[in-house]
C-alpha cells in the first residue's frame, strides 16, 4: 500500500491527483501547517528530514520531489504508456522529460518570490521586478506551448500536466493569470477531470 504524506495546503494535492489518475490504492497521512509560520509540523520531519511534501512511501522506498514521484508512479502503474512515452521514441521521451522537470526546475522560483513579497505587503526593489519579468517570461512560454491544444503536450493528457497545472494554479492564486485566458481554460479543464475531483474530495479537508 502506498502512503502519501500530504501537507495542507500545498503541492501534494497534485500527487493525490496523480494517484487517482493511475488508479493506485493509497492511504493519506495529513499534516497541517503552523498558522503563524505556514511551515510543516515536526511530525513530517520524522518521515523525511526536510519536512517537505509530497512524500510517498511504497514498502521500503521513500521518495520526495514531485517530478520523480510522477515518473516512478507512471513507470509502476502506466505500463501501457497512456500518460508517458516509451523511451523507444527518444525525441518524444526527451520532450516529455523536459516538461516534466520544467515546473519546479524553472517556474516555481519566481512564483515563490512573488508569493513571499505579497505576504510581506512590501514591494522589494530588486526581487519584485525580477519575479514579475520571470513570471511573464515563463507563462508566455507555457501559453505558447499550450497553443490551441487541450493539454501541454497536445490533445492527450500526460504526466507532464500534473506539474504544469500546479504552477498554473499557483499563478492564478497569486493573481498572475489574467493575461492568459487559454491557461485559465487549461486549468479548469484539468480541475474538471474526474480524478482531480476525487483527489480534492479525499485530500482537501
UniProtKB/TrEMBL annotation:
The keyword Transferase applies. SUPFAM superfamilies: GST C-terminal domain-like (SSF47616), Thioredoxin-like (SSF52833). Residues 89-205 form the GST C-terminal domain. This is Glutathione S-transferase. It comes from Arenicella xantha. Gene3D superfamilies: 1.20.1050.10, Glutaredoxin. Belongs to the GST superfamily. Pfam families: GST_C, GST_N. Keywords: Transferase.
Amino acid at each position: 500500500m502506498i502512503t502519501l504524506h500530504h501537507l495542507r495546503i500545498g503541492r501534494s494535492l497534485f500527487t493525490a491527483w496523480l494517484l487517482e489518475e493511475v488508479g493506485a490504492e493509497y492511504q493519506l497521512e495529513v499534516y497541517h501547517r503552523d498558522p503563524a509560520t505556514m511551515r510543516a509540523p515536526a511530525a513530517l520531519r520524522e518521515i523525511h528530514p526536510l519536512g517537505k511534501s509530497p512524500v510517498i512511501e511504497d514498502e521500503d522506498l521513500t521518495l520526495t520531489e514531485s517530478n520523480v514521484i510522477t515518473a516512478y508512479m507512471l513507470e509502476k502503474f502506466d505500463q501501457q504508456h497512456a500518460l508517458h512515452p516509451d523511451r523507444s521514441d527518444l525525441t518524444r521521451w526527451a520532450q516529455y522529460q523536459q516538461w516534466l522537470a520544467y515546473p519546479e526546475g524553472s517556474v516555481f522560483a519566481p512564483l515563490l518570490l512573488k508569493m513571499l513579497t505579497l505576504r510581506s505587503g512590501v514591494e522589494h526593489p530588486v526581487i519584485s521586478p525580477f519575479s514579475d519579468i520571470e513570471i511573464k517570461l515563463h507563462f508566455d512560454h507555457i501559453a505558447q506551448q499550450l497553443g490551441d491544444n487541450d493539454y501541454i503536450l497536445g490533445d492527450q493528457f500526460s504526466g507532464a500536466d500534473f506539474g504544469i497545472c500546479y504552477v498554473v494554479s499557483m499563478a492564478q492564486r497569486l493573481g498572475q493569470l489574467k493575461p492568459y485566458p487559454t491557461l485559465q481554460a487549461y486549468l479548469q479543464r484539468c480541475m474538471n477531470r474526474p480524478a482531480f475531483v476525487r483527489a480534492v474530495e479525499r485530500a482537501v479537508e
